[in-house]
Amino acid sequence: MTTSESTGSAKPAPKDPWDLPDVSSLVVGVLGGTGDQGRGLARRLAEAGQKVIIGSRAADRARTAAEELGNGVEGADNAECARRSDVVIVAVPWDGHAATLEAVREELSGKLVVDCVNPLGFDKKGAYALKPEEGSAAEQAAALLPDSRVTAAFHHLSAVLLLDPDIEKIETDVLVLGEVRADCELVQALASRIPGMRGVFGGRLRNAHQVESLVANLISVNRRYKAHAGVRLTDI
User: Fold this and answer.
1) Is residue 44 domain-resident?
2) Dihedrals φ, ψ of 204, to 5°?
3) What is the CATH number of the domain that holds 112?
4) What is the pLDDT of residues 76-120, one digit of tens each?
5) Cα-based distances in Å from 69 to 34, 47, 107
6) pLDDT, tens digit, 9 for 90 and up, residues 37-76
7) Where in the numbering of this chain does the Pyrroline-5-carboxylate reductase catalytic N-terminal domain appear (predicted)?
8) pTM of the shown model
9) Residue 121, in any domain of the structure
10) Which of 30, 95, 183, 191 has the fewest Cβ atoms within 10 Å of its own Cβ atom?
11) Has residue 234 been placed in a domain?
């Protein structure tokens, strides 16, 4: 007789991995929201019905970008953006990554942070991956933000596609990495609100480097085939 039979209790059914939480009420902030990637993510999430605030070092610049995006998007300086948001996406250039996070560490305390920064270098041979001392941009974020819940996602999205008003769906998967499954599921749910996208759990933060570095390969693909390639996983 099994333990469950002897106690009269049944084993709980495994959770459906596609049963994701409702995130429609969450306010999403985008640090670096005036750059192409940040504006593109802000645009798609706002069109999906999410409340979005974009941040910049200059509040006026953020407000101007927000007005151009419409759909209720607001602009603010990075500190206010972080303070007013439930989930904060980090979409700043790699060379400003550490300084930006250090400047808003207090405002990000207790917040769910989604790092989508790709540490890359460029030379005559094209793009190549850089490896931060901490292992990845996401792990650097986790080290700099000990009081935040850091995840990694949205690395492989084309800013061109995100910003193109003629494209209604972006058929791609978004790998989400993190230490707490519930936090990853929130980010997966956010990604899945954008038509055509799926948020897929991709492991713990220690695996973020290869996800970030894959962008160097995608840049080579896009240059060779004049495309805006993303990632789609099979058999799930």
Assistant:
1) yes
2) -85, 170
3) 3.40.50.720
4) 999 999 999 999 999 999 999 999 999 999 999 999 999 999 999
5) 10, 10, 25
6) 999 999 999 999 999 999 999 999 999 999 999 999 999 9
7) 28-119
8) 0.93
9) yes
10) 95
11) no
